[in-house]
Design brief:
The chain is an alpha+beta fold. It is built from 17 helices and 33 strands. The strands form eight sheets. It has a seven-stranded mixed beta sheet with strand order 4-7-2-1-13-17-15. Strand 19 (333-341) and strand 20 (346-354) form a beta hairpin. Helix 5 (359-380) crosses helix 7, helix 6 (418-433) packs across helix 7 (449-467) and helix 7 (449-467) crosses helix 9 (505-524). It starts with 62 loop residues before the first strand and ends with a helix.
Length: 795
Amino acid sequence: MKLKVVILSLSVFAYTGFTAQNIQNNPGSNHGNRFEQLGTILPTPNIYRTASGAPGHGYWQNRADYNITAYLDEDKRNLKGSETVTYYNNSPDDLDYIWLQLDENEHSSIRNAGYDTSSVLRSSTTDQQLKVSELPVKDNGYGVSLEKVTDASGNPLKYTVNKTMMRIDLPKILKKGEKFVFKVDWNYNISNRMKMGGRGGYENFPDDGNDLYTMTQWYPRMCVYSDFQGWQNHQFTGRGEFALVFGDFKVSMNVPSDHIVGGTGECKNYDQVLTADQLSRYRKAENASEPIEIVTLDEAKKAEKNHSKQRKTWVFEAKDVRDFAWTSSRKFVWDGMRVTIPENNNKVMAMSFYPKESYGLYRKFSTKAVAHTIKTYSEFTIPYPYPVAQSVEAANGMEYPMICFNFGRTEKDGTYSEGTKNGMLGVIIHEVGHNFFPMIINSDERQWAWMDEGLNTFTEYLTEEKWDNKFPSKRGPAWTIVDYMKLPKDQLEPIMSNSENIVQYGPNAYSKPATGLNILRETIMGRELFDKAFKTYAKRWAFKHPEPADLFRTMEDASGEDLDWFWRGWFYGTDPVDIAIDKVTVAVPNLESDPKAAAEVKYQVEKPLVNSFEDLSKIRNREDKNIKFYVDGDKDVQDFYYRYDRGQEKVDNNKEYTIKTEAGLPLDARDKEKFKNITGYQIDFVNKGGLVMPIILEFTFEDGSKVYDKSAAQIWRLNEQKVSKTYYFDKKVKSIQLDPMRETADIDTTNNFWSSTGTGTETSKFQLFKQKQGGGSVRGGSTGKVNPMQAAGKS
């Protein structure tokens, strides 16, 4: 779903609910927290989900096939449906009941989820908004009316409706490998989406008196039963979207005969519902490289004027999809073209449906944007597997398999603003992109909104960039998340929060995860490594149900990068990035340093190197008659120090010895010439925000040249609050800029700059000497001092 991002300042709110806990390993210390592994936070790997992030050898998922007939009553604005569902239990568990979703109950005044939010008196309102509070609340007539629930033979089934969920009690246990066939008849009054909100419903066009229907969440849908949660039957509140099972659909839609229908999958009877001219154009579009109007603007305008009372039935089929949505209206212009996916040679019909009000935009851009989207997403994830991809202009932003509902209308004179154009392109790319996340890589939207919205927004950003390098993407680049990241902590929550409990839903579920992935790609991992790992995740979990740990583990497993510090900080925490240049110390070498003179150092030979205190274990080991110490039984290893430690060798430990140190070497003329222009710079950094990131520096020299350096985030691992970096250059640094390309989402760039002309900048000197060639001791070798064996005259 496409959201318009608005950051609000809230003074008071209540926050309760589930968030994934960011357990600290070493609280109170300056290290040992941000770089610790997520082992205590992530779920334990098992036969269903492995430690590598891949599905395990025992992975399973259930399935549901649907055969549905629908009748759209335009006069009554009512949908009547009948479905036969075949549910397959592939789990190892016995099931004695199943759960279905009745999403339309969210529009009911008495059967909705009941998730109220705090409300206050408004300073101004309208006559349509001001109403007397009805207590008790009256039934508004919306929501699902169940007519019949039976088994395949027509026998009634016991069921219970709990708000937006329905439980059906099975007549007998459904065991592993078995299937259960049942039927549901229902109807509901279709809501005015423009007034009541929501993802589906109708929009009325007063100028011509026609409706445009977007039929979504319109049939009782199976809930997911999974290895990680059991039944996902959390109520539908209108925000947290959907968790759905894969299956095959056959859907027949009976609509007014002058309506044009678009839906999930392929229409199987175009020859029965289209005119000869329209069918001919469709056949041409199947092989066209430019969009061809299948239903023309003139035909759509003509249809608007005549409300037919005749009926037609459109039949669609779709395989391996998690949902089915459709649209119906006599207002539609319809165009299409073929696009071939290079990775699998899949020939896809890219199509668009739109009313005349959006003709000036959609005719020019929509189908081409659809084609561009599925091709680009195929490059970064998996090859698009479906035969159709469709964009419908419906003043909306919502996604379903192979079809999505978008916005973007021109002025009455056909002109449009650049913002309207870019908004339209952005929403088409976003919603078509949802075919990949979550329609194929099928995460649980009800629990983790970010797993589809965030990953999709990230890939949307990549796709927008490949559409037009000047496209003003607002979600993905690191600098665009700064205003959200700098909000007070009581207005933030971790990305790893339940969908229903997020205050700033757009930034949290869309922008922040998308930005995090882009930072990984551009700054932390690099494009090549990230892209391979991200494609591995998509390939592993295509047509399956991934969880967050599956993404986190796969990205590490496929890249060889330890990213636990990043998941911990960016996804489990709310700390922002604010790394500051605290101080820069400048120093030059003293080329006239006096080398250290030779000296005589007095010392005494070492005493026995035994512990100064005998601990409990040593005492007990010595008293235990069953323990035989190796050295006591092998005279060959009882050397001088065996006896020395036991007082059996006599050494004068008070006798003084003398060792002479070598004199230092002064710099010669060549050295002085070599180092005369060297300047050292110690840069002290402070982590003010808490979230660790790489340190990226731009050095500008007095001659105008620049160099860059990047230290990985692991520079903070031993001190998460303060670090220093030292550099030596043979020309003077004029300024130092931290994060010059604003790629880490640093919330305060005023502390990211140092200038040599700034106040308090002083230059000190450090001593510089010549190193003797071949000098230095060898580890484990002689120190030049007399050892106890020599002092005792033993060889």
